[in-house]
Structure formats: C-alpha cells, structure tokens
Amino acid sequence: xxxxxxxxxxxxxxxxxxxxxxxxxxxxxxxxxxxxxxxxxxxxxxxxxxxxxxxxxxxxxxxxxxxxxxxxxxxxxxxxxxxxxxxxxxxxxxxxxxxxxxxxxxxxxxxxxxxxxxxxxxxxxxxxxxxxxxxxxxxxxxxxxxxxxxxxxxxxxxxxxxxxxxxxxxxxxxxxxxxxxxxxxxxxxxxxxxxxxxxxxxxxxxxxxxxxxxxxxxxxxxxxxxxxxxxxxxxxxxxxxxxxxxxxxxxxxxxxxxxxxxxxxxxxxxxxxxxxxxxxxxxxxxxxxxxxxxxxxxxxxxxxxxxxxxxxxxxxxxxxxxxxxxxxxxxxxxxxxxxxxxxxxxxxxxxxxxxxxxxxxxxxxxxxxxxxxxxxxxxxxxxxxxxxxxxxxxxxxxxxxxxxxxxxxxxxxxxxxxxxxxxxxxxxxxxxxxxxxxxxxxxxxxxxxxxxxxxxxxxxxxxxxxxxxxxxxxxxxxxxxxxxxxxxxxxxxxxxxxxxxxxxxxxxxxxxx
Length: 513
Description:
Blueprint: H1 3-27, E1 37-50, E2 56-61, E3 69-77, E4 82-88, E5 93-100, E6 106-117, H2 140-153, H3 158-170, H4 176-181, H5 188-201, E7 206-213, E8 219-220, E9 223-230, E10 235-239, E11 252-256, E12 263-264, E13 271-282, H6 283-294, H7 296-300, H8 308-317, H9 320-334, H10 343-354, H11 356-378, H12 384-408, H13 422-439, H14 441-462, H15 465-473, H16 477-488, H17 496-501, H18 503-512
Antiparallel strand pairs: 1-6, 1-13, 2-5, 2-12, 3-6, 4-5, 7-9, 7-11, 8-13, 9-10
Helix pairs in contact: 1-16, 2-3, 3-5, 9-10, 9-14, 9-16, 10-11, 10-14, 11-12, 11-13, 12-13, 13-14
C-alpha cells in the first residue's frame, strides 16, 4: 500500500475526530474541564385566583425555545385540574390551559422550569405582520401625526424610530400631543400596544414580547419589550420600553412573544408572580439534560446513557489506548525495550488502585519472589504449560501472603496487591526467566526496568483527571490517536537510544575528516 493512501486515511481519521470534538464542545456545549460548572435558574410561576361557582378555566402563557437559553425541565402543579399545552404557530407563543369543573375558595397553580444558558441569542427572523392602523378621531389623529413627524426627524431607521417614540412617551415633561394620546394609557402594556398601532401608520411592523431579567433576586418582574422589524437586515430588533435602548438586554429571558395577556382567568382578583433561584451544576450534567430535551437519540446512543457502574469501567478502558500510544512513542521513537507489547499498559492500570510508588514496590517484590520459584522449577524439567500453571499458583500464594502480612503489620498498601493482573505477573516472571537464561541477568533486568519505566509514565498520563474526562466525554478523540498511530506505523528511522549506541561509529569519521 502506498504511503499516500495511508496518509490520506490518517488525515481523514484525524479530521473526523477533531470535527466531532469541536461540534460537541462548541455546539452541544460539552465541557472540556472535569470541574466546570454551569449557571442554572429555577423559575416558578404562581397563579392565584378565587374560584367561581361552576367550571373554571385558566390560561397561562409559558416559554418556548427562549433565545440564549434551553429549558432543561418543566413541571406543572395543579391538583385536580385537567391540563393541556398548545402552541400557536402564527404568533410563536405557547400556553398551558388548566380546567376544573368544580372548585372552591382560593386556587393556586404552579409552573416550574429549570433553564440553562447555552449561548448568545440568535437573530430572530420571523415573518413580520403589520397590524391595522388605529382609527383615531380628532384631536387624537392630529396629535398622532404631529408626534410621528417629530419622531421621524430624530430617527434614521425603524429601530431608532421606535426608540425615539418610546422616549417621547417616557419624557418627564411630555409634549401636549403626547400627554393627550397617553391620558388613558397609564400602564406599560397599554403604551406598548399603542406604540405598535402608531408604528403601523408608518408601515413599521412591531410586536410586544414579555420577558424577565435573570438577576440575583428572589422575585422576578415580567415586563413588556417592544420589537420592530428591520427590513434592511430582515430581522427583529428589541427596544427597551423604559430606556429606549435598542438591542437584546443582558440576561433577558423571553417568556412569551404571542402578544396575548400572560394570564387569563376571568377574575380581576387573579394574581401572578414569578420566583427565581440561581444555582451552579456540573456542566456535563446540564449538557446531557439539554440534549435529552432537544434530541433523546444523541444521548441514548452515547456512553453517557450507560449505567454508572458501566461508565466507570469505560472511564478506565478508554484510557488504555492512551497508555498504548505512550508505549508506542517510547518503544519506536525512544527505543526503550520492554517485556511484551501491552504488559506495561496493564501494569499501569493496576497502579491506579495501588498508587505509583506502592505499585512499583509490590510489583518488584512479587516478581522477585516468583523468579526464585521459577529458577527452582527449572531444575524439575517441567514442560511449558505445567510450569506456567505452577508459577501462576505460586504467584497467587505470594500475593495472598503479602496481603496477610501487610494486614498484620497495619500496612494498607499490601492489601491492594490483589488488584494486580495475575496472568500478566505470571507471564512477566516467565519472560524475565527466559531472557535471563538466554542473554544474561543484565539484559533481563534492563528489560524489566524498561517495562516499569513505561508503566510508570503511562500511569502518570492515564491518571490525569482532565485527560480522563476529555477522553470519556469526547471518545471521538481516539480517532485522532488512531490517525497518529497509522502515521507512526511507517516510521523506520533511528531511535533516540540508537544515537548513543552508534556514537562510537561516528567518531572515527569525524577524526578522519
């Protein structure tokens, strides 16, 4: 196979892994840090009204796809009521309807939502709808035309026109025309609706939205905002009713953009209030809940949907390729020799339960005692399989002995030796023994030391919490590791240790030169 094919395949794997990582990080907002936290708000809307004799019906406008936020969870609390939620496709609003045939006394209904901020609000490009201009009689018609002409001279586009109109409404000393127009419109809601009607005279599409500022306070205030359609940019621009400021307000949570009253009960004594509570949760948990709301399949076919005990297993297994890649670098590029291909990685995994220093001490102790038994069995002239079985039995007995003695001495370190892989220990003893017989004790000890060095370095990398979190949450990064492995698989140049080995060969050439 040509190198070009290999490099193209490796490049595609690396690109696919990085693309999936960036998508989950930037779009799905999975955290890259294991201790990263996310701001979450608990919103509770409480409706209280005196029940009428006979059937009662309550309609409450509730949020749907608020820009810049995601609704992680919703709960409706209304004992004894029938409930249904409906979405108005024309206005983009959503409402919950509660019905009950018989009720007595004061009734309390609740809507609770857990919301999570997931980025900046995207531009709103809904199709505009122009309301019918108001039919004003004199002198209101003349006053309206006068105000609109004054506003026109002090604005340059639809957004600035609406902002200036609201400033005229909120002026401390309004003009006679403004005072005349607003004499029966004292509330913010009435003024916003009237502003929408006046803007329609100038063919400016406008609408009212209702939202609240998410701030460090126990109670929230739901208030109106004005939105006007900018035909040059083909999007809606938000204007603060109180200040006339153009732009989406900071920390604004959109409650409803239907334009309807937020609460309809048929009772003038009905009350509506909102309570806020801010908390910090784990970013990974918030991201998973957000995906469950948007698309359950994205979480259903992921490691995050596995049982917790299975997730713990994969947190370890996904680190094995990391340890194997470190072994690849140290063996093929540095030139450190080891017993076996993956034996150092498996030993590194066992170090996770024993700690590095204690693991090295226990490993050396068991292997040393096992070698003494193995050299003795060499005199018995046993075949390979019986000899390995005998060594395995002795290794288990040695591990049990170390645990019992350490427990008697009050040393907890020796108890963790039971987590060492017995088969790997047995094969290590066999390979050290064979290398000792064939190439001498120095070579065998050098190979054993190389195995411990790689196992120690692999343990230090594999036990790093940020990397463990990164690989578990973004397992597609292993595709990047696979691509790099394919590239290094064709490397056949010098290793770093060979520079020292062949240094003596280079000296005569330098002297002759």
